[in-house]
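Worked example 4.2. Below are the chains of a multi-component assembly; read each line carefully before continuing.
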Amino acid sequence: MQSLILTTTTRLLVALLLVFSVYALLRGHNLPGGGFIGGLIGATAFILYTIAASVDEAQRALRVDPANMAMLGVGVAGLAGLSAGLAGQPFFTGQWFFLFASEGNEGIPISSVLFFDIGVYMAVFGGILTLVFALEQEI
Amino acid sequence: MELLLAVTIGILVATSVYMMLDRNVLRFLFGLVLLSNAVNLVIFAAGRLTVGAPPLIADGAYAPDGPIANALPQALVLTAIVIGFGLLAFALALVYRTYMSLGTVNSDEMRIAEPEEAKK
Amino acid sequence: MAEDYTKVPRFMGGPAGWISIVFPAVLFVYFMGLLPEVAEVPILRGMDWVPSLGIRLSVLLDGLSMTFALLITGIGTAVTLYSSRYLGDHPHYPRFVCYLLAFMVGMLGLVLSDNLLSIFVFWEVTTISSYLLIGFNADKAVSRRSALQALLVTGAGGLTLLAGIIVLGNVAGTYEVSGIVAQGDLIRNHPMYLAILLMFLAGAFTKSAQVPFHFWLPNAMAAPTPVSAYLHSATMVKAGIFLMARMNPVLGDTPVWFWVLTIFGGVTAVFASVMAIRQTDIKQVLAYTTLMALGTLTMLIGAGTHYAISAAMLFLVVHSLYKAALFLMIGIVDHSTGTRDANTLSGLGRAMPLTAIAAALAALSMAGIPPLVGFVGKEYMYKAGLGLEGGAMYWVIAMTFAASALMFVAGGIVAWKPFTGKMGQTPHKAHEGPWQMLAGPLVLGALSLTFGLLPDLLGEYIVGPAARAVYGPHEDLHLHLWGGFNAALYLSLATFAAGWLLYLCHQKLRGFLARFEASNPVDFDAGWDRLLDGFKAFAAWQTALIQNGSLQRYMAVIFATFIVLVGGTYLFKGAFDGAIGLSAAEVHPVQWTVLALIIVGAILVTWTHSRMTAVAGMGVVGIGVSLIFITFSAPDVAITQLLVEVLVVVLVSLVMLRLPYLPRRSTKTFRAGHAVIAGGVGAVITFLMLSVLGSDFDPRLTEFFEKSSYPDAHGRNIVNVILVDFRALDTFGEITVVTMAAIAAYALLRGIKKSTPDEKET
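Applying the procedure described above to all three chains together yields the following C-alpha cells:
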C-alpha cells in the first residue's frame, strides 16, 4: 500500500501527532488528557506511519524496541511510586515540589505523579506498538 | 434517557452473548469486544449520567463549582477500555497462532489438551 | 538399592552429614541439661505468632515432652550417624538429610508446642516430611504408592484433628494446652465432648496406625532403613500416642475414652503380633511389632490409671530403644548379606559379632526377658492390667499376654534365628558393619541393659515426670527389676512358656497364617486401592459431565447460571420498585440517534457473514459508545474510547483477513436456544441497570474525590488525579497487564511464519 500523497502527509502528521501526544500527557493533570490518552495518540501516530511506509521503517524511526519502552515505562511508574518511601510515606503517595515558587506564584510543579503518568504513557505506547509491530511483521 | 440507555445496553449484551455462544472463536472474540463495550457503559451509567459538566475544576477554584459528572466511574472505565484492548489484542494473537498451528477456528475442534473421549 | 557401604564414602557424609549429626546431638545434650529441672517443674515459655488467630508459639517442656524430645534427638543422632554411612554415597544424600532434619524439627515442634494450632502445624510438617522420606526412592513405584498412602491416610486424619482442635478451642476459649488442661471437667461435660473426642482420635489413630488405619505403616517400610528406624521408634507413629497422652487430662477418664482406646488398642496389638509372625521379611516383622507396641500404648493410655499411664510411658521408652536398635541392625544385616529373608538368614553371629550383640540386647528387651528393661516394662503392664476392675482387667491382661507372647516369638525370628546355627546361603558373604552403623544399635542395646539393671534411674527422671504430666500429680512409681513373687511375675513366666512353644512351631504357624490370609476377604491394603480407584473413577465421571471440552457448552452454562442467579434474586427480592419513575421523556433527538447507532451496529455484527461488515459494525458500536461518553460529560473516556476503537479496527483487520470467517454451523434449534439465553442475559442486565439507576445514589466517594483533588493532589482533572494519584496502584497494575499482554502476544506471534510454512485452508 504505497501512496505518495499518504507517505508525504504522514511524515508531517506523525510529527504533529507525537507533539500533540506529549502535550496531552503534560496537560492531563488539569485538563482532559494524561498518560493513557497521550500514549494512545503516540501509538496511533506510529501505526499510521507503519501503514503508510512499512513496519521496518516505523521501527527504524522509533529507534528503540517498543517492548523495552513498555517495560521501562512500568519501571518508571514503579519507581515514581517507590519515591514516596524516601519521605517515609506509603507506596504511591504523590510527592510534590514547586520550582521557582514565590508569593502568589505557584512555580513549576514537579511531582512523582508526573513521572508516574510518563510511565503510563511509555507503557501504553510501547505495549501497543509491540503488539502492532508483531502482528504486522509476523502475519 | 436512563430507561433507553438501559434497554440499549441490554440489547448490546444480548448480541454479544449470542456471539459468544458461537463455536467460531472469531465470532466469540467479536462478542467479547461488544461485551466489554456494554460493561463499560454499565459501569459508567451506574455512576449516574450528567450532561454538560465534565469533572474538571475551574482555574483558581479549589473545588468544583456546582454539580459535576461523577469522576470515579470515568477513571474506572478509562482503564477498563485500555485493559480490554490488551485482552483483545492478546486473544487475537492467540486465535491467530491457534489457527496457524491447528488449522481451525472452531473451538470444538481444538482438542489437544482435552481429547474427545471415546464415544460410549 | 545402589548404596553399597563397602565403598569408602566421604567422612561422615560430607558437610550435610556433619550438620545432620551435630544438630540433634547438640539438642540432645541441651535437653539432657534441662532434665533435672524439668523433672521437678515443667517449663512454659511463649510468644505470639499470629495473634489475630490466637496462635502462639509457646513451648511447654514437661515430663512428657522431655521424654519425647530426648528420644527424638537421641535416636535422631544415632540415625543420622548411621545414615551418613548408609546413604552417604547416595547422589541425593543432602536432600535426604534435609527431609530428615525437617522431619526432626516438625516432630520436636509437635511435642514441645503448648498451642494446639501450632501442634497441628507441626503435625502436618511431620506428615509432609514423612511423605518425602518414605518416597525417597522415588524411582520405585512401590515407594511412591506407600508414600502417597501414608500422606493421604495421616493427612486426612490431620485435617479431622484440625476440626477437632478448632471445636475444642471454641469450647475452652483458648488454644493453649496449659489453659485447656485446667478446664478438663468443663470439656468432658460439654455436649460437644463426643465430637471433639472422635475427631482427635481420628487424628491420633491414623497417625499411630491403629486398626483399621494400620495398613499404611507396614507399607511405609519402602523407606530407607534408617528412616524406618526413626519413624517407627521415636517419631512419626508416636505422634498419635503423644497426642492421646497430651489430651488425657482433658479428654480422658470417661467411659467412651476408656473403651474406645482399650478395645482399639488391644485389637491392634494382638492383630499386629499375629501378622508379625506371618511375615518372612524381617523388616516387615519389625513393622508389625511396631503396630503391636502402638496398640499396647493406646490400650494403656485408655486404661488411664496412674499405674497404666506409668507403664505406658515406661513402655514408650523401652520400645523406642529396642525398636530403633533392631531396625538399624536389620539395615546392617541387609547390606552385609543382601537379604532380609528370615528363612535364609542364619549363623551370622560369627561373621558379625557386634551386630549380633546389639541384636541380642534389643531382642531380649523386646521379648521381655530379664535383666533387660523390656522385662520391667512388661511387668508393669501386667501390674497395670491387674489394677483394673471387672471385664476391663481381663481384657487388658489377655491382650497384653497375647501380644507379649507373640513378641517373644518375633524377637526369636529377628534376632535368634539369623545369628545362630549353621551359616546360611546369602547373596553376599556376611561381614561386620562399619562403626558409624554399629554405634547406634550398640549404644541403644547397652541402654536397654543399663535401664534394666537400674530402672529407678529411668523412673525418677523420665517415666515419673512423664506420668505426672499425663496423669496429674501423683506419687511416682518406684521401678525395680525384681518385684518379688507376685501375679505379674507369674504372668511373665507364663508368657515365656507360651512364647517358647509358639516359637518352636512358628514355621508351621506361618504357613497356617498364610493360608488364612489368602482366603481372608478383608484386605485393607487392597481396599485402599479400590477406594482410590473409586475416587479416580468418580473424578473422571464428573469431569466428563461438566467439563466436556466444548467452549459452547461452558459459555451456555455460565450465562444460564447468571440468568438464574441474578434474575432469580431480582424476582424474589422485588428490586424494581425504584425503576418505575424512569421514563423516555426529554430525550434529545441526537441521543436517540446515538442509541440507534449502537443497536444497529450490534445487530450488524451478529447478523452478517462478512468479515468487513462485522468489523465495521464493531466500529459503529465503539463510536456510538464514545458519543455517549462525550454526551454525558466524560471527555477523557470518550477520547480513549475513540482511539482504542481505531486501534481495534486496525488490529482486527490485520489479523482477521487471514482467518476464515465461517457462517454459523449450528442447527436452528441450537441457534434458537442461544437466542433465548442471549435475550435472557440482556433482559437481566437491563433490569439490573433500571433498578440501579432507580435507587438512591451514595455520593460519599465522589464527593471525597471532588473535594480533595486540588488541595491534596494539585490536579484539576479529577479523572486523571484518580488515575495517577488516588488509585495509582490500580493503574500501575493495569499498565503492567497491558505490557505483559503485549509481550505475551509478541512471543506467541514470533517465528510463526517459519514454523508453519503452509497455511491450511478450511
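Take a moment to check your reading of the output against the notes. Chain B has a mean pLDDT of 84. Chain B has one domain: 2-49+67-106.
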